Amino acid sequence: MRRFLCISFAVIIYAAAWVGSAAAAGPFATHAIASDQSDAAVSYWTPERMMHAKPCPTPHKPAAVQGAIAEPLGKATGAAGYYPGYDPDKKADQSADNTVNDRVGSLVSAGVSNGYNYPPPQETFFVMTSLYGKISTPYPYKTIGKVFFVEEDGYDSQCSAASIGGRAVLTAAHCVCDGNGTYYTKWVFVPAYHDGKAPFGKWTASSFLTFSDFLQGQSIGRDVAFAIVKDNKGKKLSRRVGNLGFAYNQSRILHWSMFGYPAEYPWTGKVMVDTEASYAAVDSTQDPNTTGIGTTQLGGCSGGPWIMNFVPGSSGSKINLANGVNSYSPLDQDDWIFSPYFDGGDTGVQGLYEQAIAK
Fold first, then answer.
1. The CATH fold of domain 9-357
2. What integer pLDDT is reported at residue 76 of this predicted model?
């Protein structure tokens, strides 16, 4: 079985050689897309093209993770924090406070604080079509969707993503660039995609924000990106479909609802899929260390969000917070997937997020 990802990690062993040049340019990289090229993406992605886009080819994956790894609480220095999500259909106040109920107590009492051996427990299932794929799609399902783009070799490809605030879309960095300095083209986000349909329209990218260490070095510990999309019919993305909240510097001992559109057999990519899973392992070979959970989702789920405190049909300061993205699977271990750690600070994922939502 093969999972995701559109980049080859064969060059990971050379990543250290790239760090110096990437750092010299700053921790983040921004890529602007010409307006005419961005506009051309809308007509390019017909229903037929979207239906036949392929998940990115399987990369050479890093070495296998041997069971659950210790130090699950390891995280970047700094207090845990978050930014609330937004539901455009909710009239009540959605302001934030300064705490997040991350279910640590219940998970520790359940005995999962030490993680799980491979394969870790999980439950993966189709999202009911009555919950998305139409104009009445409830929050937060309507914030989640598919990404379509053309790789440098001309292949039509697909990933997953989510609206994260303002005009920003959260996805994996390997869903916007190849890790060798080349960005993908004709990039669009389709919220609540279902079987070739785009109920909330196609949103074209005007720019990308990534970590420099990934753009020029394929550092999978920094496999996070934000696409800034153009307004559609005079309205920005978050005001049309809402957006997930964003949580950083959180404990790894969490339960997540992980979403994606897997398109590799036996999955078809036509429908949204949900995985319910808790902390399983830490991959200490990556910097920052990445976090793993169990899933049976495969290629095409890349870039889909990990949501903590998932509460369908509700919004507020403590729920539906993005706290990871589908990134990679270790060698020969397709039944779990890892996400970069969402660290805080000006040079962490928090800093990249703040730049993205300000666009």
1. Thrombin, subunit H (2.40.10)
2. 54
